[in-house]
Amino acid sequence: MKTTAAVSTGPAQPFTFQELELDDPRPDEILVRVEAVGLCHTDLAMKGMFPDGVAAVLGHEGAGIVERVGSDVTDVRPGDKVILSYASCGACERCTAGHPAYCVRFQQLNASGARADGSPTLTGPDGPVVGSFFGQSSFARYAVTARRNAVVVDPGVDLTLAASFGCGIQTGAGAVVNVLEPGPDSRLAVFGLGGVGMAAIMAAANLDVGQIIGIDLSDSRRATALKTGATHVLDGADPELLTILRELTGGGATHAFDSTAVPAVIRTAAQGLTSLGTLVVVGIGPDVTLDVGDLMSGGKTVRGCIEGDADPQTFIPQLVEWLLKDRFPMPEIVRTFPFSEINEAVAQAKDGSAIKPVLIMDSGATTWH
To answer: For the Enoyl reductase (ER) domain, which residue ranges apply (predicted)?
Structure first.
């Protein structure tokens, strides 16, 4: 069938719209009519991985309505609302242990540009197009994805608000819920208040964490963080930030989260921990130099995390439940754009004016806040 897709043809080129041929779903796949798709910084980073002239369809925070299901799919029906997430094999030791984000085939299934067997899902006039990005390539009006990638959600959920649960929001919230696990007596410092950092704050608020401190360079983002659950906010540019953080927390944060991937910020986050504190980092950036003496003397832990160490089939429904109960204030951070304005959404993501851009497949942009 034909589908209209936003195609990347190089790191410096804007997205252009093309009509492509979309493969029929195979027995274990489903066809989804995309209604909304979040724009993630991973999309922008991967755009830069392809040389000029290579056509690629990105997008990995898709959400929509199931149109068709493969012959082996028995638990999803046409008309179901689904949120699409990352791909995993479901059979390796890590997947069966409940950690599909660390699937041994993660790279192949999510970033190879094709299905696991190498076959394309998308074809253009010049041949196969790089697709199956995170198993979906949802910068398109229709997407074919494996059943395992799709999470059936409550029919009452607004997919515009929930689309980004498949990656960015899951990453921030999952890192707090599944890895850091702070409690009411904890003191959590969140460095970087983009969509991922805001998700960390929202999740912490749902865990009734005692202190939730949002740290960012932007005045407006710090103000938004207070609306999404932060108990305090600090200016990341303050030369006395470390001293202020330690004073505010009575000696240091018990938990910290970094989404900036900025080496100096990560170093500060680690130094701002109290003894036996834990820092989770989720961004990929330059190498970081940490004070090993500080880590050893304080018994501190610094670890990485992919996709919030979350199993989408169980964690996304939790996020949806919080959203439906007005306990996960996505309207404070979502800004929507018509699909046709994807390049404007990219511009606002890059300059920071949009915290969480979401593309919708009809006309008329909406600012939720």
So the answer is: 10-359
Q: Are residues 53 and 197 in the same domain?
A: no
pLDDT of residue 49: 76
Helices 241-248 and 263-271: angle between axes, nearest 10 degrees: 30
3-state secondary structure of 137: coil
**For residue 224, what are the domain limits?**
171-306
Whether residue 25 is found in the same domain as residue 152:
yes
Q: What is the C-alpha separation between 64 and 60, in angstroms, rounded?
A: 12
Predicted confidence at residue 174, as pLDDT, reads 98
- Amino acid identity at 162: A
Residue 210: half-sphere exposure toward Cβ, Cα within 13 Å: 11
Paired residues of 220 in beta bridges:
none
Are 103 and 91 in contact by the 8 Å Cβ rule? The answer is no
The yes-or-no verdict on residue 105 having pLDDT over 70 is yes
Q: Which two tokens stand for residue 167?
A: 């990656």
Strands 334-338 and 356-360: parallel
Distance CA 211, CA 187 (A): 5
- Give the Cα separation of 140 and 147 in Å (integer): 18
With 0-12 CB in 10 A as exposed, 13-18 as middle and 19+ as buried, what is 155? exposed
**Residue 169 C-alpha from the chain's centroid:** 5
